[in-house]
Amino acid sequence: MPxxxxxxxxxxxxxxxAIWTGFIIxxxxxxxxxxxxxxxxxxxxxxxxxxxxxxxxxLTRGRRGAGASxxxxxxxxxxxxxxITGLFGGLVYALxxxxxxxxxxxxxxxxxxxxxxxxxxxxxxxxxxGERITSGRALGLGCILxxxxxxxxxxxxSAFEGGEVWKGDAIFMAAAFCWSVYSxxxxxxxxxxxxxxxxxxxxxxxxxxxxxxxxxxxxxxxxRLGAAPWGEMLFQxxxxxxxxxxxxxxxxxxxxxxxxxxxxxxxxxxxxxxxALGAVLLLGEPLGWGxxxxxxxxxxxxxFGVRAARLGGGHGGAAAWRPVAAQGxxxxxxxxx
Length: 337
Description:
- The protein is built from 12 helices and no strands.
- By secondary structure, the protein is mainly α.
- The chain is globular, with a radius of gyration of 19 Å.
- The two termini are 32 Å apart.
């Protein structure tokens, strides 16, 4: 018996939030195992490619040579769009995320990555798309900035004691910036959700895999693939690639179709709190007052921005707030991992 549209939307929302929350917790937990950040990125690319590249080839059958596809027909987007979006949204973003988990706790990632995403997206949308900031969105951005400073400031203070947490915090902010660039550019191009996800995966596969093989073979890039258990590599390929890239992209599309972009953004605002709580319960991370306050401010800032989008309506109200993925089935729908 098929599920109703609402039941399908609820199931999609649960899967999306679970995968995004797991991305942060598992990413941090991976730092205690064998694989290095570049190794995990390779598993992500291989896992996603196994599912999405055949899909891309199927979508572009009979259309090759018409400028609508590239990379031997595995990317359903033109080459220029594939390269630009794939660089920021597929390759650099993933590398930065996994590198950050080796320096900073998961709780910091839960605040700084989802939290700074609306900040970067709004600033980029102002510069590239000419969008304006409303007072409601400005208040939300102020809360997000204050929350980020509370969390990141503690990391900076630890640098005077020889700590390296600040490096992870800075990397998480840079990762959010890369995803925001991808989001704004994808909105500018009006890209389809599935095609954009396939395109960035194809770009990563055609560039990162041979480059990784070349650099590790020459001894210029450290790797632990030879020492890693097969189970660990398979798990990373399935979760980081299949789940985080392919499945969450599809479920987010379905969630937006069921609940709309604004309510969907409110649902995904659960991710910072859930991932921070999961880091405490599953990884034994401390949850001090500064982190709690930062988490509360970031979550409040996201909700302020969603409320401003709902009240403002139209392009100027919601568009710069939601990551481009949250704007419906015509645009990329995967602002998470």
